[in-house]
Design brief:
homodimer; alpha+beta; Arc Repressor Mutant, subunit A; Chorismate lyase; six-stranded antiparallel β-sheet; two-stranded antiparallel ribbon; 30% helix; 31% strand; elongated; DNA-binding
DNA sequence: CAGTGGTCTAGACCACGCG
DNA sequence: GCGTGGTCTAGACCACTGG
């Protein structure tokens, strides 16, 4: 037998989804039905559907009215360049909100401030000692009420002591980038990293991720002419987000990409 | 019971990995040992370890000398900006190779040319009709002999008919970007997209991906002043790659990031 | 209540690959 | 050979939720 049974079942169902015979949001046959249909035990059927869950193609909902459904793919676009313009007219949080609303969704955010010890990874980016203290400003972002991404921005403690507003547990109206610029710490360069990986259990809970949903990590280190001033780690739910970034002549790009024309 | 047994087992093993009690490359207890250790059936043990496989933390190797091992994380860094400089001194393929070698690995590539009908997604980016023909230049990239990423670059058919070298089934020495520039199609802008998702079965095979490994998609649309000239889709194995991009003052960034200093 | 998926058990046979 | 994980079966009990 070249291909195990549970893979054959998975392949057949996947084919039905791709061909459109099983439409988005539509219910798959129940597990007992699939057992009959493929003459397989329940565990084999579950192995098959587990493959599809891991591919992000279907989701399983318990309960009388539940079942297995073809997952919807709504993709929010996050513009890496608009999010944080050094000379931009407004705060990052507002920039994100307006982006979401422009794409026809409802945006909300939850803000939180803590003091943390820096992990080795983050300390390296900020060029400070591991385990030194930093201000963590966390922003959980919701689209249509569903958690969509978490942005953690870390500032070295000495910078926060100089620019005390960073310790405010509220949103900063003009945006932290602008605030820092006003205090002589304008950012002149960014180092951006993009990583795809599976979520930790904490991230899965925080973002309400199904099994088989990866996250997209966006790590931005911001530099003034003298030092790294911040590092922000944004964890995007992979099934609902996409990051976009443009380079070169903005006029040309706008000409060929309608959605870039506004603003 | 608040937490199912298989999650408790997964949590304990995960903790051992994170704390370093189980080092990278080290073997976990065998399934029978875990059954005894946690007083669980084999399927429950397998459910537990399946969680860790899906998180990319461990891998399972069949055979007498196999077992379950803590996965190694080697991360190759791909520089989005260096890869394709319009005025760069050499071909993209060479740029990629030198990047890999500078990071201490061995690089190789496989090249392939086909004519394809464009999917709706890609046709939209090139502003042509869906299913119209395009030249697909595929490059499978290997790091230390292991497939690491696949780059598919699509050129509209009419452009390939004008710049016939695009139909060559071999690598283009000076690089396609430069070739196009020499023929009056210099690219003046890029639209980059970053997406994290689970691989299709084909991608998993092509890249040799374990279950529970996501891919990082990098989609670059290149524009001349008159039109979209190309769209390239790079599929990175998520567990072995990271994309980096910088903005702003390159001198400042280089000053604070040693690895950026060279070149 | 009835039917969904979630969890768990106790077995079985197989392919693989080192000794 | 023999121990590893890979696959598969047949059953069981549970939590949840709409009718």
């Amino acid at each position: 037998m070249p291909l195990p049974k549970y893979r054959q079942i998975a392949d057949e169902i996947r084919q039905q989804i791709k061909s459109g015979r099983l439409a988005v949001g539509q219910r798959l046959p129940t597990e007992p039905q699939l057992q009959q249909q493929y003459d397989a035990s329940r565990n084999t059927v579950r192995d098959a559907t587990a493959v599809l869950v891991n591919e992000g193609l279907i989701e399983r909902v318990p309960g009388r009215s539940g079942g297995m459904m073809v997952r919807e793919k709504v993709t929010l676009t996050f513009h890496a360049h608009r999010a944080e313009m050094p000379a931009g007219p407004r705060a990052e949080t507002d920039a994100w909100r307006s982006e979401v609303e422009r794409q026809g969704y409802e945006a909300s955010q939850q803000f939180q401030l803590t003091i943390e010890e820096l992990s080795t990874d983050l300390a390296e980016r900020l060029l400070v000692e591991p385990e030194s203290a930093a201000v963590l400003r966390r922003c959980v972002r919701y689209v249509n009420g569903q958690p969509s991404s978490v942005q953690d921005t870390y500032y070295p403690m000495d910078l926060a002591n100089e620019v005390r507003e960073l310790l405010s547990p509220r949103d900063i109206p003009q945006g932290t980038t602008r605030l820092l610029a006003e205090r002589g710490h304008s950012q002149v360069g960014y180092y951006d990293e993009y990583i795809s990986r599976m979520p930790t259990p904490e991230e899965a809970t925080l973002l309400g991720l199904q099994l088989g949903t990866p996250v997209l990590l966006f790590i931005r280190t911001g530099y003034t002419s003298k030092r790294p001033a911040r590092v922000s780690v944004t964890v995007f739910a992979g099934d609902r987000n996409r990051i976009v970034s443009t380079h070169g002549d903005p006029v040309v790009i706008a000409k060929f990409r309608q959605e870039e024309a506004s603003e």
